[in-house]
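[Q] Does anyone have a clean structure-token version of this?
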Amino acid sequence: MGSYGISKVTLYVLNTIYAVLGFAIAAASIWFFCQVTEFTTLRNSNHYLLDYTVYWPQAIPWVFLIVALLVLGVSACGFSSAHKNSRGLITVFVTVQSIAIICLIAAAVVALVFADNKSTDDFVKDTVWDVYFQTKTDNEVASSFGVIERKLHCCGADSPRDYKNWKNEFPMSCCDTYYHGFLDAYTIDCEFTNKLANERHGCSTVAAQYARIVIKVLSGASIFTAVIGMMSLGVAVALSKSIAKKRRIQALKNESESKKVLL
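[A] Here you go.
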């Protein structure tokens, strides 16, 4: 297999990895958006009637989703250019790939500089506190917040002791609801002396940490995808040169054969 065949196979492999990474970033972005929305939909809507600000935890999923869709489109262009053996398509691929790499790096930088900081912590804390206050008067919000407490293994807004001023005991979402014994499951007490509940962090702290982790993971994945894109860019250039060389050799061969016919 010559340089042409190696470049073509390598471009296929790199584009496959590139497409998988793009799909993974898109899926993670959608999941992150759903997690943020799960909190924000429980807030008191009257508090946000005139608040049209889009906060970074709400914007970052869209930033990475758009970049991921661009990656998927570019990978499709890469597959097409490798399959068609067209220098024109490879030129288009190199151009859009360069744009995609810049966007991937830019998205990571924006996320790490603007989103992975105290502003995200403040947004999450304000949101959780608003939802927590809603639980005092709205049973549906209290039920939904309980689901969040179970999922994140947290309790209260800032700490488990938030419940002490207005409840007789912790909600069951702060404790293990059931111990699955040999015979049957049974409920346990969830009083303020419950050790497990008191050791849990507040949901504002836990949610903020998870948000930061997701932002870092998305940024890291974006940078890694950009590196794969750079590799495919180099292979595409090598493939373009191989196609040009192959065509020159074919042209010289055809010219040589035509001269033999004339002789």
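[Q] Thanks! Anything notable?
[A] The first strand starts at residue 178 and ends at 180.
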